[in-house]
Amino acid sequence: MKEENKPIKKGFSRRNFLQVSGTGVAGLAVAPLLGAQATEQKNPERPFEVPNAVDVQLNINNETIKLKIDPRASLLDTLRYKLNMTGTKKGCDAGHCGACTIHINGERKLSCLTLAMRHQNDKITTIEGLSKDGVLHPVQQAFVDNDAFQCGYCTSGQVMSAVACIKEGHNKSTEEIKEYMSGNICRCGAYPNIIKAVKAASK
């Protein structure tokens, strides 16, 4: 005789256990979010405030600008995120690529490697300050005429470095231009046309 089918015992099977466990974990994960949302509704988020912010006065493109910044803020971050001068690009943020090149007192500097508050009495020039009354600087025009860029991300730094390179008198030969523009990296490889632009602007 065949044994009669025994009734299935009610309880936790492996599948039931996993389903219940999964639901519980999901509940635990969502609960803090719901709590945070409720807290935000009761206490609206306050405007972001920088602890120990300092007042600084910067001379940028012949304009005196007063602002409050984090004393640890780089000049690059201050230009881009505080003053919305996004022509100066943030590439490596470690002084390797040259995309953030600006002029301080007429000399080229990497703005990612210097603190903004250290330059309160200096004359700062960015790519936005090169053109005058809507007319491009000769180096800017030379870059356009010689197609000396592709994606354009490094171009502002290349232009600022080229202006300084010519001013410093390091434009007498192709090799000299290569040497004194070597701190500016173009990942697109537009170097031949950049050199042509520097030579054209030098004239």
UniProtKB/TrEMBL annotation:
A Pfam cross-reference name: Fer2
Keywords, comma-separated and alphabetical: Iron, Metal-binding, Oxidoreductase
2Fe-2S ferredoxin-type domain ranges (all copies): 54-130
Presence of keyword Lyase: no
UniProt KW Oxidoreductase keyword: yes
Protein name: (2Fe-2S)-binding protein
